[in-house]
Amino acid sequence: MMKFKLLLWMLTKMLQRAVKTNPKCAAFVKDKNVTFQIQTVSGEGRYFEVKNGKINSHAGKTKSPSFSFIFKTGSKGFTVLSAKDSINTFLTALRTQDIVITGNFVDVMWFQILVDFIQPHPKLSLTV
After folding, report:
1. pLDDT tens sequence across 25-77
2. pTM for this model (two decimals)
3. CB distance 61 to 45 below 8 Å
4. In this structure, which of 10, 31, 99, 125 has its CB flanked by the most CB atoms within 10 Å?
5. Residues 96, 77, 120, CA angle at the centre, nearest 5°?
6. Are strands 34-40 and 54-59 parallel, antiparallel or unpaired?
């Protein structure tokens, strides 16, 4: 469970850094106002607030998230969120119900785009 909690805290820091260092990311969150939850079935997790161009998170649960990612266990959440093959791992977790998504799916898709700002992208080679 501790690795899951640490990963969620790190996610906050990575998203905050992306907003500060990437003008496209800053523009992407500028006018967004959303609160979402990432947690386990047992209720361990964090909620994230995107408001006024800033991203913050808090331990625990929020009363009315726009959407929630609810993982079966902390270890399943850690495995899915830290996977190198994130798309296939995420889809497999959905299929096996290791993760359940509730709420506004438009905001879920927005979040998927947001997370892409913190993903490493291969650098283009300039060799001929």
Report:
1. 999 999 999 999 999 999 999 999 999 999 999 999 999 999 999 999 999 99
2. 0.88
3. yes
4. 99
5. 110
6. unpaired
